[in-house]
User: Fold this.
Amino acid sequence: MNNGEKSTHYYLGANSGEGFVSHFDELDCLAGLNRKIIIKGGPGTGKSRMIRRVAEHYESMGKGVEYIHCSSDPDSLDGIIVGELGICIADGTAPHVLEPDLPGVRDSIVNTGDFWDEKALAASADAVTDLKKRIKHEYNSVYRALKGAERLKSDNFNIVDAAMKREKLRAYTQRLIRREIAFSADPAPYYSRRYLSGITPLGVLIFWNTVRTLCDRVYVISDEYGIGRYILEELRTAAVMRRQSVIACLCPLYEEEAIEHLILPDLKLAFVTSNEYHAFPDEPYKRINMQRFYDGEAVRARRNRIRFNKKTAAALIDKSCETLAGIKRMHDKLEGYYTRSMDFAKLEGLTRSVIDRLDSFVEV
Assistant:
């Protein structure tokens, strides 16, 4: 299933029922990190543009790039990681604030605000302030709706959880572990958390191409209720204990960690959840139907409640995506005030110097 590409795509932050959840601190978990550059600056000042230019530079050299997308604007980049070179560059502004851990030693800050016209921005103070207030208000509306969806989906999970055939599930999972997860001699396996899917202005989006890039074999877990997490959690634990590198992809709806997909890159193996929000589009290596692990009669006895919960949760998620689309339109207007005040010729000079600085720290 490998598509011949080297680059992958994820989110490191999520719009969730608890607000914005960030895992940007895990940029520091990259083994052998040589250099991290943190970009500061306002909206519309070229941060994503700079990140994309750096990515293009290393992709042109044949390096694999891990792209970190913005869940509130999937076309915008919040960061990249070039793992084989041990470098990363990321937007360090709210809502995923980053500060140097080893300033000067390993971490550096660049500021796109050095190239804006402060007098022009000051003249737009009222409009900028108003837009920021409106955006904050609308985000709170998104988070309330997603909290409602989370509770409804959790209610369905609890109904099915009470009907689980736990011994059958555990026996199957243990057989799966023995068959698929070998012991590794890797002296430095890594463990990272990512989001493969996101609740975005364009709907619920998922980067299936990342799975195609990293994996030759894909197990698809057909799961309407989230109970597949039991299999995924045991697989994760076994993979860590057997010294395999692990990419645990979390569900963006929940603040509490709930694994949605699991990628074992050294084994070129993935276990992915397929449901009404993200149906796996390819022919899988094998399919696991979670219906076999719970009492269908007990679940059907609660079908009216389950149906109501599913329908209402779906409406709340759809409304959240619609509201996020409105927020993006407001954010585009906000960016316009900053973009009009920027000297992008000077920013391009800074971008070139950033690339030169990164090159100086690695073998390219």
